[in-house]
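Sample intake sheet
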Amino acid sequence: MNLQCTGFDPLWGMSRRQFLHGFGMGMGAFGLSDLLGSEASAADHVPQFGGSLAGMHHAAKAKRVIFLFQSGGPSQIDLLDYKPYLNEVHGQQLPDSVRKGQRLTGMSGNQSSLPLVGSPFKFAQHGQSGQWLSELLPNTSGLADDICIVKSMYTEAINHGPGVTFIQTGSQFPGRPSMGAWLSYGLGTANQNLPSFVVMVTKNKGGQPLVSRLWGSGFLPARHQGVRFRAGKDPVLYLNNPDGIDSASRKRMLDALGKLHDQQLKHQSDPQLETRIAQYELAFKMQSSVPEVIDFAGESKETLALYGPDVDKPGSYAANCLLARRLAERGVRFIQLYHPGWDQHGGLPGGLRNQCRETDQASAALVKDLKQRGMLEDTLVVWAGEFGRTNYCQGRLAGNQFGRDHHPRCYSIWMAGGGVKPGFSYGKTDDHGYNIAEDRVHVHDLQATILHLLGIDHERLTYRHQGRRYRLTDVHGEVVRPILA
């Protein structure tokens, strides 16, 4: 951590920061020092519950975002991008004219054979819009007239670490603020008793590792980092009082810290100290707000049944989806769900079926639930992974057993609510499902569009760091206007 002691007080014989370390007794706000690692110069730009923007750049369609991140790279060919031609050429070699010299991963780049693989799953048209969806997504298929499917996404990353980092932060390199942190920094929070950015990861799921920097604040003030909610009685680490400390004692401690802080401000401002005290105060408020939000006792039997049988299992994808709706109701600005395991290099038919069984009902239930409550109109739901999968088999094609490698050149996502066109399909890939044929959408274009729907011009939400102005979309990105309602 880059912490510098300031404000030595002869009365106490220690700095304010030393006092906090000694007197805090483990009472961390969102993981203690992890939240306080940003530079002091970054901490004084935003009021505690306000954003850096004086106002919206234009009228917002969405007030909040729920990002359902499917980590690992779901196979668009088997879920959202129907390619009947691949079944006709099943087993034939990927033509050089289609590959066009694109680099492959080390997992399939040395294969002497790249046999094309058609999807073994049936596709059908659904709803008045006639959108094509796989039999693996029966519940999402019921939302055909509510979702916008983008079939022409592409990314610059070919492996998981850079790919996930890129879609979450706008850069393949670690250290940049995540999308939720940017929104917290720009827009602030609508509920002073809850963080503006909450993260949940499906419990006990294997797959590629998901690390906290993916929802970190980077060089932005530390209070904008995502707060992870875990399954169990203590969803936020270090939130509860230590043994022997009750709420009244903690309140007296906070009041005393406030008085000391006021004295310090008369002589010298310390932005990191202000951030720390603000986090302590929010943590104190969250001691009562968090137990209430994670308690499903007030939900109807119909609502619980909508999300499926796993909703009663804390930390499951279904439970996290319902919790996302409850957080959205209470003003949380950005809610990020991670569900790992979409990485079928082998055994795709069985593995993909299991992934969809775990997620399809709850993802669709979230959209239906928001719609029933009149919240979908101003809540943007995004379902996406970091990249797609290849149209050819990784390894040897053996009957119905096959796998697909990473494919950054084209993949599919869907969005709902929050100002996107419902029942709409955008973009097109070639018959082989390998290249984009129409309307390319870069990851930065997606990020620019999400910000636009929230009333933000992505080129104007910036932060000066190390001599230059940074933004989520770096120096790229165009709003995908055809998908706007």
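Comment: The two ends are 45 Å apart (CA to CA). Residues 43-235+294-462 form a domain with the Alkaline Phosphatase, subunit A fold (CATH 3.40.720.10).
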